[in-house]
Write a structure and sequence with these properties.
The complex is a heterodimer of chains A (119) and B (115). Chain A is an all-beta fold and 119 residues long. In chain A, the strands form 3 sheets. In chain A, strands 2, 5, 6, 10, 11 and 12 form a 6-stranded mixed β-sheet that branches. A 4-stranded antiparallel β-sheet of chain A has the order 3-9-8-7, with no helix packed on it. Chain B is mainly β and 115 residues long. Chain B contains no helices and 11 strands. In chain B, strands 2, 4, 5, 6, 9, 10 and 11 form a 7-stranded mixed β-sheet that branches. A 4-stranded antiparallel β-sheet of chain B has the order 1-3-8-7, with no helix packed on it. Classes of the chains: A mainly beta (119), B mainly beta (115). At the A-B interface, strand 5, strand 6, strand 10 and strand 11 of A face strand 4, strand 5, strand 6, strand 9 and strand 10 of B.
Chain lengths: 119, 115
């Protein structure tokens, strides 16, 4: 079974600064995907970024980038130029690749990190 | 493109009652997954539906059941409600195509309170 650990329950950052959220995972799978989702107080889970395990290049989406270390099973999220709208719970999630044999694609989530961006 | 929608937004039930939650998939998606998110926790996978059949289930008892309809919308039914069923229920849709693994996109959730 896969597990995802987010060791920082809460973090805060000043507006315009950079912050890094940590995530580690445990799996025996070799093909999988990793995600960061954001859940603002409005509750809707919003995809921030996705990383395929077979890709060595770290994913980036505008101000958001990841540091994916496959051997260390680490997947941290860096937010640059933090904005007030980035205030939210951030969840790291793991999904095993389905492959040709079928099966479900379930997300396994960490417990989340509450990020507060201060003005 | 229409996103994932869920209804109702909030629901209050008493212990022992039954509840039905609804989800409409994002257009073009054929798979629906349901998650339970207790307060202060990450979401937990309940089950997934693909082509109107259950396609994987998490560690939830049989009183949690579901349906998927030909238009890919879905229902989550919970019988004999317990206090611990109080949570945010999230629906996510995705496109299952051959061997690809697609990203799941979430709806706004239904907040269920069991008294």
């Amino acid at each position: 079974a896969q597990t995802v650990t987010q060791s920082q329950p809460e973090m805060s950052v000043q507006e315009a600064e950079t912050v890094t959220l940590s995530c580690t995972y445990d799996t025996s799978e070799s093909n999988y995907y990793l995600f960061w989702y954001k859940q603002p107080p409005s509750r809707q889970m919003i995809l921030v970024i996705r990383q395929e395990a077979y890709k060595q290049q770290n994913a980036t989406e505008n101000r958001f980038s990841v540091n994916f270390q496959k051997a260390a099973k680490s997947f941290s999220l860096k937010i640059s130029d933090s904005q007030l709208g980035d205030t939210a719970m951030y969840f790291c999630a793991f999904m095993k690749q389905r492959g040709t044999q079928g099966g479900s694609e379930k997300l396994v989530f960490g417990k989340g990190t509450k990020l507060t961006v201060n003005p | 493109e229409t996103g994932v929608t869920q209804s109702p937004t909030h629901l209050i039930k008493t212990r022992g009652q039954q509840v039905t939650l609804r989800c409409s998939s994002q257009s073009g998606h054929n798979t629906v997954s349901w998650y339970q998110q207790a307060l202060g926790q990450g979401p937990q996978f309940i089950f997934q539906y693909y082509r109107e059949e259950e396609n994987g289930r998490g560690n939830f008892p049989p009183r949690f059941s579901g349906l998927q309809f030909p238009n890919y919308s879905s229902e989550l039914n919970v019988n004999a409600l317990e206090l611990d069923d109080s949570a945010l229920y999230l629906c996510a849709s995705s496109l299952k195509w051959r061997a690809s693994t697609d990203t799941q996109y979430f709806g706004p959730g239904t907040r269920l309170t069991v008294l």
